[in-house]
Amino acid sequence: KKKKKARDIKRRDLFVKFFVTCLKRLKSEFPEIKVGGPALCWMNESYFRAILEACKKEGIAPDFISWHHYTGHPPVVMNAIKKGRALCDEYGFKNCELIINEWHYMGPGGFSALRSADPEVRKKVWSGPGSHNGIVSSCFNLTLLSKFQTSKLDQAFYYGCSHTGSWGYKDGYSKYKVYYGLKMFGDFIKALPVICKSESVDGITTFAAKSEDGLRKGVLVVDYLSGKNEIVLEFKGVDKDSETWVYVHDNTRDSELITAPLRDGKIVLKKADDNCAAFSVWF
Question: Which helix or strand (DSSP H or E) is residue 259 part of?
């Protein structure tokens, strides 16, 4: 173990030297381009510390740092973003951007289950609500996208967006649940680009936004493994008794438009089953 650790440190130090050398040369030749990296497989603090410390010593600032994230736990992703911002600030690189250059839902069993030759394991991973691209995966995406908007993250790239294959948003015949979730978020943020607030409590994430003129408002509500049967929203500053439009994304529906009654400033969003679900509420 000691020999392996020593080899790993030596390889890391060689890469750090290579990284800083390339960064200095590229920025001197092409100051207008952004240079950074190195797309680590996770938020590896010790590796990033070595890179940032070497950059500071050589008097060169990276334009961004980047890493991958594959998990089923949104708080882990958000904590990594906070860690990345804290590290860059600690070394004096307050303008250094944070980029998650690959992210995707990863269910129980991780990559081992994903690549398993066992038919029972593969069936669980690739079919049903909790599958790699099912409704659980889709609501995981919606949770992160909602939280990204008010975080210190600068860019994030969903993996992947091919037209076919297990990592894309569709197979050769139909679209996955993740497609409809991504479209739901895109439609919401396109119509309501002014971000108001995002927060998560007990597995429920709410993301509020409004139109540029302030005349249209909405809230995206995502239930990610909360275990609740219904969600009660309470609003201030809206008609106490009326009806509003709600788009529903769950295990049985894909952005189906329904109307929901608003009574005494409250809306009750009822889930079709005990799976994850998302609701786009418009006023």
Answer: strand 254-262
Instruction: Kindly report the number of other CB atoms within 10 A of residue 2's CB atom.
Output: 6
**Window from 107-111, 148-152, 158-162 with minimum mean pLDDT:** 158-162
How many angstroms separate the CA atoms of 132 and 134, rounded?
Answer: 6
Q: What is the pLDDT of residue 163?
A: 61
pLDDT given at position 172? 74
| Cα 17 to Cα 11, 24, 38, 54, 263, distances in angstroms | 10, 11, 13, 8, 63
Q: Is the pTM of this model over 0.90?
A: yes
Residue 164 in this model has a pLDDT that exceeds 70: no
Is the pLDDT confidence value at 212 over 80? yes
* Angle, in degrees to the nearest 10, between helices 45-58 and 2-29: 40
Strand partners of residue 204 = 201, 223
Residue 196: closest CA among 185, 209, 187, 183: 209
Strand ranges (E), 167-236: 194-201, 204-210, 217-223, 230-234
Phi, psi (degrees; rounded to nearest 5) at 64:
-160, 160
User: Which residues in 170-191 are b (16+ Cβ under 10 Å) and which e?
Assistant: beeeeebbbbbbbebbeebbee
Cα–Cα distance list, 179 to 134, 158, 168, 271 (Å):
10, 11, 9, 20
pLDDT band at 165 (very low <50, low <70, confident <90, very high): low
Distance between CA 43 and CA 39 in Å, rounded?
9
Q: Are 206 and 221 in contact (CB under 8 A)?
A: yes
Is pLDDT above 90 for 217?
yes
